[in-house]
Amino acid sequence: MRKVANNPGIYRKCTKTCPEKGCKVHSGYVVYIDMGANADGKRIQYTKAPFKTLQDAKDHRVEVLLKHGMGAFVYDRKRTVAEYLDEWLPTLAATGRRPATVANYTTLAKTYLRPYLGHLKLTELEAGHVRKAYADIRAAKPKLSPTTIKRVNAVLCAALTQAMEDKLVERNVAQKLRLASADNPKIIPWTPAEFAAFMDPIKAKRLYPLLYVAGIHGLRRGELCGLRWSDVNLEDGYLKVNQQAVQVGREIVVGPPKTDAGAGRIVDLDADTVTLLKRHRIAQRADRMAHGSAWQDSDNRVFTAEAGAPWQPERVSKTFSRYVRASNVPTLHFHGLRHFSASIQLEAGVPLEVISKRHGHSSVAITADVYGHLSRNLGAESAEKTAALLRKVAGESSLVLS
Asked: Is the pTM of this model over 0.70?
C-alpha cells in the first residue's frame, strides 16, 4: 500500500507487491484511523476497505471522526473557496485587524484568489492547486513582483487558518509553500542638497510644512495626516504619535499607528522645526478665521487641506510626486522621505537605536536591515576612525608592513 499525498489516513490498496519505483496496480483505497489506546495502553487502529474512489474514502473517514467525536468537522462538499472568502472577509474587522489591512486583504482576494482558486471546493483544495494558481497569475501578469505573490499567499493562509479553527478543513495547504524570494529594492534617498533644492521652490505651498516634517523627522504619511495639535508640544519641542489616518477607498479612517512600537512614541523636534510649526499654526488660525463656519477640521489637525479639510493620504503622495516631476531632483516616492530622514541622521552620527525609536520600528534589527545601506560614506568614515585610533595607540607605522 501507498500513502495518498495530502490525505492523512488514506492509502491505496494494491493487488500486487509494489514495484520498487511505486505501485502500478490498485484495487481501491483504505482508511486507517488511530482511535487512541484502550485501558491496557494498547493502540486501537480502525481500518476500512476497499473504497472505489478517493472521495468515498475521505467521506468515510470524516464520518468516523464525527461519530467518535475525534474531529467535529463541518464537512461541506459544496462550499467553494470563493464562497468561504466571501464569508470570511467581512469578519476581519472584528478580529482587530486595521482598516487598511482589511481593505488590502479584500483587494488581494478579489483580484487573485477568487479568479484563480474560487471555483474549487474548499475541502478539496490542495497545495498543487495553489502552486498552479500562482504560476498562472505570474504568467498572466509577468511584471507582478514576488512580494505581491507572498502577500496573496498570506491572505490565503490566514483564511485557511480560520477555516481550520472552524473545523471546515483539516489542514492549511498554503502554510508551507515554497515561494520565490520577495524583492527588496533598495531606495536611494536624496542628498541634503537635493532635499533643499526640492523644498526651496515650494515654500509657499500648503503642503510644505508636512513635507518638511516628513523629511526631517521620518514620520509615516498616515501619521502626518492624523497628527493633531494636541499631540504637539512646541514649548518643550516634541510631538507624540498617537494615531494615523489611512485611506480605505475614498474614506479616511483614523486608527492606531501602523505598529505597536510606533504607537505613543515621542519624536523630539529641533529648533527650526519648532519655529516652522509655530508659524504654520499662526497661518492656520488666520485661515480658520477667514473661513468661519465653513472650516471643516473638527479634529484640530496640524496639517489640513483647503478650508480645514483633512489631507487624503493618496492626495498627499500625488501632490508630492507632481512637485518632484516639476523639480530637477531624482525621482522619489513619498515614502522615500522617511529613508532620507534616516540617511541624514546616520550621516550626522545619530545611533541606530535612536533612529529606530524615532521611526517607530519594533527592533533595531529592522532599522539596520531597512536603512543600513543608506549612507555611502559611513563605512569609509568608520574605517578611518578605527585606523586613527590604532595609530594613536600604537604609533604611526608600527602596525603597517613596509
From this structure: no
Cα 13 to its chain centre, rounded Å, is 46
Q: Tell me if 172 is assigned to some domain.
A: no
Helix or strand or coil: residue 249?
A: coil
Report whether 214 contacts 224 (CB < 8 A): yes
Q: Which domain holds residue 336?
A: 192-371
Q: Is 80 helix (H, G, I), strand (E, B) or coil?
A: strand
In this structure, are 7 and 145 located in the same domain?
A: no
End-to-end Cα distance, the chain = 75
For 204-248, give the DSSP string.
Answer: TSTTHHHHHHHHHH---HHHHHH-BGGGEETTTTEEEE--EEEEE
Residue where a domain stops, chosen among 35, 67, 99: 67
Is 360 within the bounds of a domain?
yes
Chain mean position to CA 397? 52
Q: What is the mean pLDDT of the chain?
A: 84
Q: Say how many domains are in the chain.
A: 3
* Percent of the chain whose pLDDT exceeds 70: 83
Examine the domain organization and report whether 18 and 86 are in the same domain. no
CB 273 within 8 A of CB 224: no
> Same domain for 45 and 132?
no
- Cα(102)–Cα(240) distance, rounded to whole angstroms? 26
Check whether 402 has a pLDDT greater than 60.
no
Q: Which pLDDT tens digit goes with each residue over 179-222? A: 887 666 677 889 999 999 999 999 999 999 999 999 999 999 99
Residue 398's pLDDT band, with cuts at 50, 70 and 90, is low
Q: Domain check: are 353 and 308 in the same one?
A: yes
Residues with Cβ within 8 Å of residue 351, at least 6 apart in sequence: none
Q: Are residues 127 and 244 in the same domain?
A: no
